[in-house]
Write a structure and sequence with these properties.
The complex is a heterodimer.
Chain A: H1 3-8, H2 14-25, H3 29-50, H4 55-71, H5 83-104, H6 113-117, H7 124-141, H8 144-155, H9 160-167, H10 171-196
Helix pairs in contact in A: 2-3, 3-4, 3-5, 4-5, 5-9, 7-10, 8-9, 8-10, 9-10
Chain B: H1 2-13, H2 20-31, H3 34-55, H4 60-94, H5 96-99, E1 101-103, H6 117-129, H7 132-150, E2 155-160, E3 167-172
Antiparallel strand pairs in B: 1-2, 2-3
Helix pairs in contact in B: 1-2, 1-3, 6-7
The chains are: A mainly alpha, B mainly alpha.
The structure holds zinc ion.
Chain lengths: 197, 177
């Protein structure tokens, strides 16, 4: 379906995925493990971006996603692309993780030390890395729904229609969330970059 | 105020998400407004950074960690399910009279045709001589004797489950041990 899904399944390999799924359904653990290898980067990357780069939480969320997938093998039709289901489940798992984490930790309004101090350099590459860092931080600060829309639309590069399908909402809502999210990140970046100069 | 509205549109124009008429309106405005052109550029840069973030692969060690934990949990679930089944099988064995299908070498001897003479005589004597309160106690004693008499034979017990591949046999001493 999406760029990301195509990337997850190597070209002409959908058949192999279907075969692995059929074997996994019959209880073949090795086949399930290989399926995991195909999707783990996609799931972890999405979880990392949803959870502001907090690695341990992203690993926990990814673990939840794959255990759910294992428990839900029966529901996948033959030849079905599991990527949309995985994206949706990842976003939901991260929402739950975010809720738990918020109870433990106060998110300050001031930019984290990492975003303020790290990676400043005169070269264009360093500038780009600096912007990426700020954007990562800005993304982490978005309200959950806007973050999910921006992660799927801009980070994962999916079409608005696909994002709406995964998040169970309308294209108009996704557009509005994406617009608001992008503007907030842009304002966040502007504030930080202005502070520096 | 015109610029504020244009900035809203700018955030969608960069990805082709703005409606055609909004896009035209923005282009006409931006042609004469440097601030809005700059805004669109800034949003484009943010979007580019987001795309680059998407190209970053998570660390291999994270993938391996998750995979190992998931596979371990799945194996653990299987083990627990198997043990759970065993526990259920053992519980079923304890309720042998209900669940178990018994086969003995001499089936006719398993079920006693009559109550043992000892039990009957004890009961008869007691019925004549003891108070009503004692009468309520007595049957329990005689049932126990009878049960011992029944189990005096070695028994082959077969335990069947819903899974046709799992059938358990064992031989009991006949005394309940
Ligand atoms: Zn303007």
């Amino acid at each position: 379906m999406s760029m990301a899904a195509l990337e997850a399944i190597p070209d002409g390999d959908a058949e192999r995925s279907g075969e692995l799924m059929a074997r996994a359904k019959r209880g073949d653990a090795a086949a399930f493990e290989e399926l995991m290898r195909r999707y783990e980067r996609m799931v972890l990357r999405t979880a990392l971006r949803m959870l502001g780069g907090r690695r341990e939480e992203a690993e926990d969320a990814s673990q939840t996603v794959f255990l759910k997938m294992h428990g839900s093998l029966g529901r996948f039709r033959e030849g079905e692309d599991v990527a949309p289901w995985l994206y949706r489940t990842t976003v939901n798992a991260c929402r739950d993780a975010g809720r738990k984490a918020r109870r433990r930790r106060e998110v300050g309004l001031e930019p984290a030390a990492g975003a303020r101090d790290g990676g400043v350099g005169p070269e264009a590459a360093a500038e780009k890395e600096r912007l990426r860092e700020i954007v990562r931080e800005g993304l982490a600060r978005l309200p959950e729904k806007e973050r999910a829309a921006v992660v799927l639309r801009d980070v994962e590069g999916m079409e608005t229609r696909e994002v709406a399908g995964i998040l169970g909402t309308t294209e108009a809502t996704v557009r509005s969330q994406v617009r608001s999210g992008r503007r907030k990140i842009r304002e966040f970046a502007e504030r930080l970059l202005r502070k520096r100069t | 105020m015109k610029c504020e509205r244009m900035r809203e549109i700018a955030a969608l124009v960069v990805s082709g998400d703005a409606a055609a008429d909004q896009r035209r309106e923005f282009e006409e405005h931006a042609a004469g407004c440097a601030a809005c052109r700059e805004e669109a550029e800034a949003i484009r840069a943010v979007r580019e950074a987001l795309e680059e973030i998407g190209a970053e692969e998570p660390e291999a060690v994270s993938c391996a960690t998750v995979r190992a934990r998931v596979m371990e949990e799945i194996a653990g679930r299987r083990r627990r399910a198997a043990w759970g089944w065993w526990a259920a099988a053992m519980a079923a064995g304890a309720c042998a009279a209900v669940v178990v299908w018994m086969v003995t070498v001499r089936p006719a001897k398993v079920v006693p045709a009559a109550r043992p003479a000892v039990a009957r005589s004890v009961e008869a004597k007691a019925a004549q001589s003891v108070a009503p309160a004692m009468l309520r106690e007595r049957p329990r004693r005689t049932r126990a004797r009878r049960a011992r008499a029944v189990q005096a034979q070695p028994m082959l017990v077969k335990l069947e489950s819903e899974d046709p591949n799992v059938v358990i046999y064992w031989i009991t001493s006949g005394t309940g041990d």
